[in-house]
């Protein structure tokens, strides 16, 4: 058993795949050519809008047994179905051993998770800082989640967690993710944040125009290159 590795790979089952969206996304074409392999620690997915990174994380979450709108595997609520059908065509290869806890954070539907937490009631909010996420700002509720609900030896799938965070909030999230990785957790994260990508030892996969998943260094990752180019000469981009 490798510490911090609970999922080994994700593969596309062509027999279960359909046509049109989401099976025409670049990243799905990439999966047709090569499996997505996950090591211990953090794997980041980066790429332009429309490359399919968020759809892929959502599909992996569904294939791994998570609720499509987010939460733990015990969440089974549904508000408005918006997930793609990709999850039914993915196979998730497990590693030996079992994670202590797990969570799927889908930034766009975390409001629905917060409502479900209130509906469950009881002591469930103790695991989220003792306060309903609806009683905190969006960014504060995300940081509460990372601080109080996420624990060592966990499996965490995050879709653009920076969506609600300030730059300082991203730095706090960076530190907490690093702490959890050192505690034996595994993360798969779709992000545009150059701050989050700085997790020490993280593996960064950039989705190309053809859907290929190419490992890149931090300095070469698209969000880092783009942000640095903008900050070097903001006026040139207006």
TrEMBL record:
Source superkingdom: Bacteria
GO biological process: double-strand break repair; iron ion transport
Coiled-coil intervals: none
Main location: membrane
Molecular function GO labels: ATP binding; ATP hydrolysis activity
GO CC annotations on file: plasma membrane
Lipid bilayer topology: Peripheral membrane protein
Keyword set, alphabetical order: Cell membrane, Ion transport, Iron, Iron transport, Membrane, Transport
Subcellular localization: Cell membrane
InterPro entries for the chain: AAA+_ATPase, ATPase_AAA_core, P-loop_NTPase, Rad50/SbcC_AAA, Siderophore_ABC-ATPase
Keyword Iron tagged: yes
Domain AAA+ ATPase: 39-211
Gene3D superfamilies: P-loop containing nucleotide triphosphate hydrolases
Keyword Transit peptide listed: no
Protein name: AAA family ATPase
Organism this protein belongs to: Pseudonocardia petroleophila
């Amino acid at each position: 058993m490798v510490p911090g590795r609970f999922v080994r790979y994700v593969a596309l089952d062509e027999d279960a795949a359909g046509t049109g969206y989401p099976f025409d996304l670049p990243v799905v074409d990439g999966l047709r050519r090569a499996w997505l392999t996950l090591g211990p620690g953090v794997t980041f997915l980066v790429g332009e809008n429309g490359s399919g990174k968020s759809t892929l994380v959502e599909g992996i979450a569904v294939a791994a047994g998570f609720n499509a709108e987010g939460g733990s595997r015990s969440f089974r609520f549904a508000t408005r179905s918006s997930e793609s059908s990709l999850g039914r065509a993915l196979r998730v290869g497990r590693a030996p051993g079992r994670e202590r806890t797990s969570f799927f954070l889908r930034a766009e539907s975390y409001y629905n998770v917060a409502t479900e937490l209130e509906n469950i009631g009881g002591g469930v909010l103790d695991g989220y800082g003792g306060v309903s996420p609806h009683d905190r700002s969006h960014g504060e509720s995300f940081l509460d989640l990372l601080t109080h609900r996420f624990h060592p030896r966990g499996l965490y799938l995050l879709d653009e967690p920076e969506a609600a965070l300030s730059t300082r909030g991203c730095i706090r999230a960076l530190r907490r993710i690093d702490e959890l990785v050192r505690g034996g957790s595994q993360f798969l994260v779709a992000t545009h944040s150059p701050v989050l990508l700085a997790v020490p030892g993280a593996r960064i996969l950039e989705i190309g125009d053809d859907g290929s998943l190419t490992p890149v260094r931090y300095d070469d990752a698209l969000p880092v290159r783009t942000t640095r180019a903008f900050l070097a000469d903001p006026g040139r981009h207006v």
